[in-house]
Amino acid sequence: MRTLFSSVAVAAACFAAIWAQTDGLEAFTSESKRRLSISRQPRPVVAVEFQTQRSETLGWDAFRGRYVIADFIYTRCGSVCHALGIEFSQIQKQAADLIADGQLHLLSVSFDAANDTPVQLGGYLARFGGDPGSWTAARVLDARGERRLFEQFGIVVLPDGAGGYAHNAALHLISPDGELMQVVDYGESDELIAWLRRGAG
Amino acid sequence: MSGRVRLAALLAGWLAVSASPIAAWLESSMLLHLLVQLPLLAWAGWLGGALLPPAWVEWLNRYNRRGVTGVVLVSGVALFWMLPSALDASLDSGLFAAAKAFSITLLIGTALFITSRVWHPLLKGLFLLEAWAMLARLGYVYAISPDRLCTNYLFGEQQLLGEALLWLAGAWAVLWTTRIMIGPDRPRLKTTDGTGD
After folding, report:
1. Which CATH architecture describes the domain A44-200?
2. Under a CB-based contact definition with an 8 Å cutoff, are residues B148 and B161 in contact?
3. ipTM at complex level
4. Distant-in-sequence, close-in-space partners of B127: CB < 8 Å, separation ≥ 6
5. How far is CA B125 from CA A30, B107, B121, B191, in A?
6. Residues of B in contact with A7 (CB under 8 A)
7. Nearest CA of chain A to the CA of B164: how many Å?
8. Model confidence pLDDT, tens digit, residues A66-103
């Protein structure tokens, strides 16, 4: 009897811990936990100053009133960032109406600020046929601001040992009033656009 | 060595593995983290269990008839630390790092030692078989998953770990089978706590 009670109590405690850690058996990796928490509770983006491919300095305010889809890249990257670049150029075509209507803007933020000068950033846009009017490539010059921004967006960048970086590749949706509200995998821009058409259209 | 010296040596070793530059080095690699640090922590707990006064072990085992509670506890704690988010958190938060060190040492290592004094042979067989199967399953998941499961480690290392786990499971299976086929005829189907069924 004692053993029965203790094993049931132990099992319940373990289950409770696992339940809490997985947000109710919904999120098993830290990445999925982060996304779930953002979509349940949108949060104002960390204020930073961007330097764009045109060498302009601007903040999130520049995009106010528009949804922003942001990704994080470095221009020398040949793998995931390439896929992200292609995806952004597809969004430009698929959501051309939303963009023309001033409802949507694209933002590629480099996490390799040391190498990604405005020239490099401009080259990145040109490579994917990006229209600079609706797609901004930028770096964050202030290292502390960059760190806080990446922390909020959950960007973890690891050197891959071959001179490049391994990093999480996701699309981040920021609301017209500057709140980070959703994070999806790259490849899921269709759903994001459909959602924007329903919600914002 | 006297019990006190052994305890001091064990504590020093445990601290080195759980909170020192050695720990940081072990945690810098996914392979070393899962295949060296975690087993060492559990082992330290097991050795610590052997230093407990027998009366304490006996008292605890009043709540652990035939090892049932212990096996539930060890399985539950192991399941928790198999969550990729829990492992990530142990690298990002001091609280989780401490929880990991203590729970794997005491709630897996020591609990397993205490349980091993009384567990029913069937329960022991079931537990070991399930541990083996979980090793193979985890290895398979790590080897084939297209996603990076831990944000603190590189994808390539995750695949390497998966392969290593599969090799370990394979070696374990071969050793086990060999022992059953040609080893000493040791299986005894009666409980070891002497109470019988």
Report:
1. 3-Layer(aba) Sandwich (3.40)
2. no
3. 0.85
4. B71, B74, B75, B119
5. 34, 20, 6, 12
6. 68-69, 72
7. 20
8. 999 999 999 988 777 788 899 999 999 999 999 999 99
Q: Per CB distance under 8 Å, which residues of A are interface residues toward B?
A: 2-4, 6-7, 10-11, 13-15, 17-18, 21-22, 27-33, 154, 156, 158, 160-161, 166, 168
- Token digits of residue A130: 């990006």
Using one digit for the tens of pLDDT, what is the confidence trace for A36-50? 999 999 999 999 999
Q: Tell me which long-range contacts B126-129 makes (C-beta under 8 A, separation of at least 24).
A: B126/B71, B127/B71, B127/B74, B127/B75
Domain residue spans of chain A: 2-37, 44-200
- On whether the CB atoms of residues B87 and B150 are closer than 8 A, the answer is yes
Minimum CA–CA partner of A13 in chain B: B76
CA distance A15 to chain B (A): 7
| Chain A CB contacts of B65 below 8 Å | 2-3
Average pLDDT over residues A130-138: 92
A75 close to A124: Cβ distance less than 8 angstroms: yes
Instruction: List chain B residues with pLDDT less than 70.
Output: 1, 185-197
Instruction: State whether residue A139 is helix, strand or coil.
Output: strand
Domain ranges, ordered by start, for chain B: 3-182
